[in-house]
Amino acid sequence: MPRLENGKRSHAFSTSRDHGFLEKSIRIEAARLDDGRVRLRLEPIDPGHAFPTGDLFRRLELSAEISGVDNMSLGSTSRYLTRHWGFKPKANGRELISDDRLFDRAVDVVLELGAGGKGHDIVWRVAYQRVAHPKGIDEASAEIEGEVVLGSGMLHPSEAEK
After folding, report:
1. How confident is the model at residue 101 (pLDDT cuts 50, 70, 90)?
2. Could you tell me which residues come within 8 angstroms of residue 20 by beta carbon, excluding any fewer than 6 positions away?
3. Whose C-alpha in 44, 53, 62, 110 is 20 to 30 A from the C-alpha of 23?
4. Span 3-37, pLDDT tens digits
């Protein structure tokens, strides 16, 4: 907490709503692989702890979509990098099942779209999300309070795929 001119400490922290701060926290590279797969390489920049961090329900949503004629979606997939929770048997509450957030090194995540992606553009996106309410254990149905898109792009088919 830096000192202000009046000698008091500042509470102006960079937060999950600061787009510039979040963009500078991660480096993203995308590559198209064979058979409609996309590799996203995520590298945390100067991590002091896991990314995303904050409350228990911050997450990264990684998604890819096959773009057809007139940008019609021909298929999509997504994955969440977060703390993954399950329900405790015969108890009220959740338990931590796994944690695949980014820590101190680059991570490659492969998203599979299947052969339907052959010959089509693939649109990818990485978003930092603030989950307001997890609805059960299906992560895709969570209520999202807000998000910041950290990276996105389009991968064109190779000449061999066309």
Report:
1. very high
2. none
3. 110
4. 778 988 766 666 666 767 777 788 999 999 987 89
Amino acid (one-letter) located at 59? R
For the chain, the distance separating the N- and C-terminal CA atoms, rounded to the nearest angstrom, is 55
Number of domains in the chain: 1
| Residue carrying the six token digits 């400490």 | 9
H or E segment and range at residue 29: strand 26-33
In angstroms, rounded to a whole number, what is the distance separating the alpha carbons of residues 130 and 127? 10
Cβ-Cβ contacts under 8 Å for 7 (sequence gap 6 or more): none
Overall pTM > 0.85: no
CATH code: domain of residue 68: 2.60.40.10
Is the model's pLDDT at 113 over the cut of 70? yes
Nearest Cα to Cα of residue 36 among 64, 69, 63 = 64
Residue 69 confidence (pLDDT) = 87
Q: What is the CA radius of gyration of the chain?
A: 19
Residue 12 lies in a domain: no
C-alpha dist (Å) from residue 86 to 42, 89, 103: 26, 9, 22
Residue 161 lies in a domain: no
